[in-house]
Design brief:
Layout: E1 7-12, E2 16-22, H1 29-42, E3 54-62, E4 67-74, H2 79-92, E5 106-115
Antiparallel strand pairs: 1-2, 2-5, 3-4, 3-5
């Protein structure tokens, strides 16, 4: 399933931007906000990451909210940042159960952790 054009952008401090892209057919905005907020809350910053790089993780959330799968799609190459992104998604699990209206066994989310330049 492709990711939604609509994204939830949250700022991570220090030095990063976090965006979550949900499967287009999954339109439950409250669930999206809650899931993204859990990942943001679990984030532990990795200092000195190279600006302009991005880690993209693709997660599968099961009907019961467990993390059914997690794979990397893009890594920064800066291990502390990449490891922090993986730890944030794993640390946020389990998520809330998917709405009963979601007819599929899982729902895909792309989590983007972008390093931004210090000002």
């Amino acid at each position: 399933m492709k990711s939604s054009v609509l994204a939830l952008a949250l700022t991570l401090l220090p030095g990063g931007r976090f965006t979550a892209y949900f499967t287009p057919a999954f339109t439950d905005a409250a669930y999206q906000k809650e899931a993204a907020a859990k990942v943001q809350k679990a984030w532990k910053p990795a200092p000195n990451a190279p600006a302009g790089k991005k880690t993209v993780l693709i997660a599968q959330i099961a009907q019961d909210g467990t993390l059914a799968g997690l794979r990397d799609h893009m890594m920064t190459g800066f291990k502390p940042w990449d490891d922090a992104a993986i730890a944030a998604v794993k640390g946020a699990a389990p998520f809330a159960p998917l709405p009963k209206s979601w007819a599929y066994p899982t729902m895909e989310v792309h989590f983007h952790f972008e390093v931004v330049a210090k000002k």
